[in-house]
Design a protein that fits this description.
Helix content is 62%, strand content 13%. The radius of gyration is 27 Å and the shape is elongated.
């Protein structure tokens, strides 16, 4: 009973402090949210992501118009191999050289290019993120072109089809105004919580 009374007293004091200092607490939360929003809008560089998609179609019988189940299984296995080739320096170095990206090295390339595959499909997504939306689309499409040439010379077969080329993105992919403003809101709540604890202990 004594411990429960202590909890009830503490909670009542917490609510009393919040009620007494409600306006300052609300202003702290509001200020933190506004600062986070302003930082997002004016200080954090905007980035844009352009995506190109490839589909791998490996036919056991090139003359046939139909794709068998075994063809699909083979294509899905090739997706993993092709994804690794897309990440390799054999592709990145040629892309950098072709586009004369003097300010971009292999490490920087790896940071802005993301290769992913849709599970249990033959589709590979190439996503390029850059501060320049046009550059993002140009790099993504160049990766596709270089990759198709490389694969043909390696496999001696054309089994890669462009599902869609990268288009210049109109909207930024980051930073997120809503997400960062919410972080500011939560930070304001944490500050208020620290103040409440301080007042409880004094």
């Amino acid at each position: 009973m004594y411990e429960n009374d202590e909890i009830e007293i503490d909670l009542s004091r917490v609510f009393e402090i919040i009620k007494k200092h409600f306006k300052p607490f609300a202003l702290i939360i509001l200020a933190a949210s506004i600062v986070a929003a302003l930082i997002t809008l004016f200080l954090i560089p905007k980035k844009y992501t352009a995506e190109a998609k490839l589909i791998i179609v490996q036919k056991s019988n090139p003359d046939s118009q139909q794709i068998s189940y075994n063809d699909l299984q083979t294509s899905q296995k090739l997706v993993n191999t092709y994804s690794e080739i897309l990440k390799s320096e054999a592709i990145s170095d040629e892309v950098i050289q072709n586009l004369k990206l003097e300010d971009l090295d292999t490490e920087g390339y790896q940071k802005i290019v993301k290769i992913s595959s849709v599970k249990d499909t033959e589709v590979i997504t190439i996503a390029v993120t850059s501060k320049d939306p046009k550059e993002a689309a140009v790099i993504a499409n160049e990766i596709v072109d270089v990759f198709r040439d490389k694969i043909y010379s390696i496999m001696n077969i054309e089994n890669v089809t462009v599902l869609n080329s990268a288009k210049i993105p109109e909207k930024k992919s980051s930073p997120s105004n809503i997400k960062n403003t919410l972080i500011g809101f939560l930070l304001g709540c944490v500050i208020d919580g620290c103040i409440v604890v301080y007042l409880l202990l004094n």
